[in-house]
Amino acid sequence: MSNQQEISMSSSISLNPVGFIRTGFSEVRQCPKSSRRNPDQCQLEISSPYADALLNITMASHLWVLYWLHHSDGTALIRRPRGDEAARGVFASRSPNRPNPIGLSAVELIRRDGNVLMVSGMDCVDGTPILDLKPYVPIEDHQPTAQIAWQP
């Protein structure tokens, strides 16, 4: 391992939430298995210091939401899915319990009201910290040849 890699591996990273997600789910067990399975609307409340970062956000019909899965204990390395599926490492899964519990969802942007975004398609508990928002860019984000072995 090079010196640069050793420095990077031992460094800590500090992230500050830019807002919070309001879903109405008070417990992890209430959350849908994936964001695509939740057509209900919820709110992304962006903190006042970051409100200007929402300029022209409505130019995008969909957004990527990166968020911190604050109920995860961050210890799992192997995941055993429900049913007959084979065990996999968390890097080969969408499990919320992972070393750096960062969630990622593609959501539909319904409307903006000041610093609050109404979206459809979140799968996390109420009060989940938002790390970042990015526009979903179809020509860049769509991968027509993408496959995953556990889905036909």
TrEMBL record:
PROSITE patterns: TSAA_1, TSAA_2. Gene3D superfamilies: YaeB-like. It holds the Pfam family TrmO_N. InterPro entries: TrmO-like_N (IPR023370), UPF0066_cons_site (IPR023368), YaeB-like (IPR040372), YaeB-like_sf (IPR036413), YaeB_N_sf (IPR036414). Residues 15-145 form the TsaA-like domain. NCBIfam families: tRNA_TsaA. Belongs to the tRNA methyltransferase O family. This is tRNA (N6-threonylcarbamoyladenosine(37)-N6)-methyltransferase TrmO.
